[in-house]
Amino acid sequence: MGSNGEEKKDGNDEYQDMSIVEIIDYCTNARYEEIERELEEMKSYIGGGSGVQSEVQREVNRISWKAEALQIGCILTKHCSILIPKISFHRMDPPEGINNLSDSGRDNNDQGNRMASSSSSTYNVQTSGSSHESEIKPFWSRTEVGMDFERDRNLFVSVSVGTEAFKIKILDLAITAMNELANMAIENEPLWHPCIAGRILNCAEYIKKFGQVDSHFPVLPNAETYTNPLQTEASRETRFLAVQPVHIVELLMNNDQYSHVLSNMVSKAKVLGVLSTQAQGDYNGALQVMAVKFHASSPLVPNRKCYLARYSRRLNNNAWGVVDVSLQSLFPNPLTRYRRRPSGCLIERFRDGLCKVTWVEHCEVDNSSVPEVCRYFVTSGHAYGAKQWLSTLVRQHERLTHIRVRRDPKLQLSTGEANLLILADQMMRNFWRNMSFSRKNRWMLVSLSDAENIHKAIINFVKEKEGRCPGPALVMAATIRIPASARRIFNFLQDENSRSKWDILSHGHVVQQTRSISNGCVPGNHVSILEVKSPEDPDRTVKTLLQESFSTSACSYVTFAPVEASSINMILNGGDSDNVPVMPSGFSILPDGLTGDEVSLVTIIFQILDSAASPMCFPAHSVYSMYKVITETAKAITAGVVDPYNMG
């Protein structure tokens, strides 16, 4: 009993007689001073860590109010009987002629209502309430468990790495990882066994030689009782580049350069703390903590993300090393599905202005969610292996060198051509951004009932102005297997003379290449302007396309976007390309990882504007139209490269 004679209320029962508005006001006012005090304490703590970035302080306020909102939500749920609805996708009545795209294997818990619409048919996100099967459902939800708390976890890591105790542990881990990388980059048998794809790691020899760099990592399998769900992937690749070693070190340690140059694999890279910095331009001993997310060349393949320490060091007068290593032991997470063992590159100065770059990729990952069509491509190391990383680095170096080094004045780029290359680069980065999966870019699975050779297609929403998109848009993607070499498929897709054979929007038209700018040493690596002419009037241009195509030793891309002819003319006359909208579609072409050069994986990505689309609503007619474009394109490409005579 309280002093006033009334029974003391327990827990949150004091709110039971209040309205919802009164509860919110009461909670906000009652906790305001306490929140302010906690914020001041946190800011004071953050101020003691020199390695923590200033933006962390702004995040503290957001996190505190988020926690307050969660507390209020719990009170409302308990006392006002407010239930938080489960979100799922439901199909509205499709227009006549649309195939049944339902996934008959879905669990009853994921089924929803069939709802009627008096206007147009759409695929909507609604609250579940009954039992109709949906056609579109979240994709990779399992791999992104807890992703809404990603920024909160970034804050926690940022604060932690500013303390001296963590700095010492991370530095010790980085030094050990660098020593391991240097040895793995130069040793051969018995540590590395030669194979058709390059070299394969001898796991038993690895454990014997290096032990455990990170005590949190489980010992690699040597017994039948081993049950670790993560599989080991390891690869090594060596190439020569005409560049100074320190320039590669700078590229990897400068987050802006790293994210830009390697954007075909890096979805996101954020420096959470700088633990050791040197004088400007000196990267010897530089150490930073990062949150990274990588994506493959097919959106069907799950992203890989982790917290890591990146450390660069000059090993001797002629060699540098840059190493990454996961911080799983310091920041454990039971949902971890990707751990990065010591990985990176050894860069050695060679004669004649060359440097030898040896790239090592070594990780543990859960590949159980990878679709069957991409399974061996991923598990063989083709998706995220050393060859992918190093071939990207080599291609970007060749591209810049080829553009800059033009001894003949007649071959030098004009301002307009340089601006056109800038626009093409932006188009490629938008294409890769659409390919990745994130909180802002969530793919949804579309079940296709009669799509020949297409096992899964996925769709997502791109909001207006995102990546220069001129309006709300939908992007659909599918990955197919084609029994032809990657080079043959690449040549077929990038050649304007064969475009009308696979581009159903250009059937019956004449496609002319009006401008081509080479941006690499490999034939077919160029940026071009294509004009689709009317068959009735060859002087009338139906549409103008900007296209970039390039091929490396690991993958190939053909990407294009419709651009207004007036915008192209403005750019070529020296105008700025910054405000020109681009909506890329295109292809990635890769080896399937199983059959050598006999079968390729081709990912088709198609994008359309749709003012009626939103993150919660996919118009049915748009979904069906995109589905038809992708399936017809897949059939045409297969027919064109397997038996070109079938295409006339």
List its salient traits.
648 residues, alpha+beta, 10-stranded antiparallel β-sheet, disordered N terminus
Reconstruct the topology from this structure.
Layout: H1 20-47, H2 55-79, E1 87-91, E2 122-127, E3 136-138, H3 150-160, H4 164-186, E4 192-195, E5 198-201, H5 203-210, E6 231-241, H6 245-253, H7 255-261, E7 266-276, E8 287-294, E9 304-316, E10 319-326, E11 338-340, E12 343-349, E13 355-365, H8 375-379, H9 386-404, H10 415-435, E14 444-446, E15 457-462, E16 473-482, H11 486-494, H12 499-502, E17 510-518, E18 526-533, E19 541-551, E20 556-562, H13 565-572, E21 585-591, E22 600-609, E23 617-619, H14 620-642
Antiparallel strand pairs: 1-2, 2-23, 3-14, 4-5, 6-13, 7-8, 8-9, 9-10, 10-12, 11-13, 12-13, 14-15, 15-16, 16-22, 17-18, 18-19, 19-20, 20-21, 21-22
Helix pairs in contact: 1-2, 2-3, 6-7, 10-13
Describe this structure in words.
- With 648 residues, the protein is of the alpha+beta class.
- It has 14 helices and 23 strands.
- It has helices at residues 20-47, 55-79, 150-160, 164-186, 203-210, 245-253, 255-261, 375-379, 386-404, 415-435, 486-494, 499-502, 565-572, 620-642; strands spanning 87-91, 122-127, 136-138, 192-195, 198-201, 231-241, 266-276, 287-294, 304-316, 319-326, 338-340, 343-349, 355-365, 444-446, 457-462, 473-482, 510-518, 526-533, 541-551, 556-562, 585-591, 600-609, 617-619.
- It has a ten-stranded antiparallel β-sheet, with helices on both faces. Strands 6, 7, 8, 9, 10, 11, 12 and 13 form an eight-stranded antiparallel β-sheet that branches.
- Strand 18 (526-533) and strand 19 form a beta hairpin.
- Helix 1 runs antiparallel to helix 2.
- The longest helix is centred in the first third of the chain and has 28 residues, at 20-47.
- The protein is globular.
- It starts with 19 loop residues before the first helix and ends in a 6-residue tail after the last helix.
- The relative contact order is 0.10.
- The model is unreliable at 1-13, 45-61, 63-134, 140-149 and 219-226 (pLDDT under 50).
